[in-house]
From TrEMBL:
GO CC, one annotated term: cytoplasm
PROSITE patterns referenced in this protein's UniProt entry, alphabetically: MSRB (PS51790)
Encoding gene, per UniProt annotation: MSRB3
Full protein name: Peptide-methionine (R)-S-oxide reductase
Keywords linked to the UniProt accession: Metal-binding, Oxidoreductase, Zinc
């Protein structure tokens, strides 16, 4: 938030109510208006506690602790809630931030951006455009050619290795879900 905006907020007589919204129509989407919706009960059963906290409560996992922070395998990163493909491994880079970072998306409209004014700063929140799951934030300090850094929580992602067989079956018969994605591992 710029100094002028902060000063403007502090010196006004009336309290200012800020509401993040990035849609051109001026209306904010709620969980019920995303193309794909899931009940909170279903999500609590299907996701681990940290996955639920990050994607549904806009939480953040600890830096340098995420499952995909140091992942170097080739493949596709998808939304852990709805499975929508978001990023490919060739667009991932080490930003030193402690979270998986990407400089470009699979499709431009796979992520919705909204203003996030929490913690006294202005950031752009990145959410899955299919289900509204909180993924992380977008910053403008990434590498060329885009200059963007999508700083994404590992807990909001699933990963499909390029070497995995069809339908998530890896060579050797294991499913495409990693061991640390299991609900008992927390």
């Amino acid at each position: 938030m710029s100094g002028f905006n902060l000063l403007h907020l502090v010196t006004k007589n009336q309290p200012v109510k800020l509401k993040a919204c990035g849609l051109p129509s001026g209306t904010c989407r709620t969980k019920k208006t995303w193309p794909r919706c899931f009940s909170q009960e279903e999500l609590r059963k299907r996701l681990t506690p940290i996955q639920y906290h990050v994607t549904q409560e806009k939480g953040t996992e600890s830096a340098f602790r995420g499952e995909y922070t140091d992942n170097k395998e080739e493949g596709t990163y998808s939304c852990v809630v709805c499975g929508a493909p978001l990023f490919t491994s060739d667009k991932k880079f080490d930003s030193g931030s402690g979270w998986p970072s990407f400089f470009d998306l699979i499709k431009e409209d796979s992520i919705s951006l909204t203003d996030d004014l929490s913690y006294g700063m202005h950031r752009m929140e990145a959410s899955c455009s299919e289900c509204g799951a909180h993924l992380g934030h977008l910053f403008d300090d990434g590498p060329r050619p885009t200059g963007k850094r999508y700083c994404i929580n590992s807990a909001s992602l699933s990963f499909q290795s390029k070497n995995a067989g069809p339908e998530g079956v890896e060579p050797g018969g294991a499913t495409g879900q990693s061991a640390s994605s299991s609900k008992s591992d927390l």
